[in-house]
Amino acid sequence: MASLHPRLAADTGALGETDLCWLRWMRDGRFPWLIVVPKRDGLREWHHLPDGDQARLLATVNHLAAELERVTGADKINLGALGNLVPQLHVHVIARFEGDECWPGPVWGQGTPRPLETAPDWLARIRLPADRP
């Protein structure tokens, strides 16, 4: 059975899941930020997934990117699968706004996170993908 990396568990809250992925939200109040984590142990890279799972992961990320754009009115949606600090494959979906505290640079390693203990209001308006367990 797959498990969520302890750092992802600590830094994110549960949003939902699909057959393939856990859907999470980042506990940083500076940005509307989602995380998609395939439920597969030992994967570090997207290309390590079988082709069919790669397509399903892409569909999930695209769906959530469109939803995040819809509910936040973001100027730009940033996507990333860095994994330099957390070796478990996960994809960041981040709403960005011209003039946010990291604009136009990346969010990673910039500024000071603003921890959230409860889910932000915008999260309730996200429609989850149809591919659900």
Automatic annotation (TrEMBL):
**Any coiled-coil ranges, and where?**
none
Source organism, top-level taxon: Bacteria
Q: Name one GO molecular function term.
A: catalytic activity
Q: Name one Pfam family in it.
A: HIT
Domain HIT, which positions? 34-103
Q: What is this protein called?
A: HIT family protein
Where does this protein come from, organism-wise?
Alloalcanivorax marinus
> Which taxonomic lineage does the organism of this UniProt entry have?
Bacteria, Pseudomonadati, Pseudomonadota, Gammaproteobacteria, Oceanospirillales
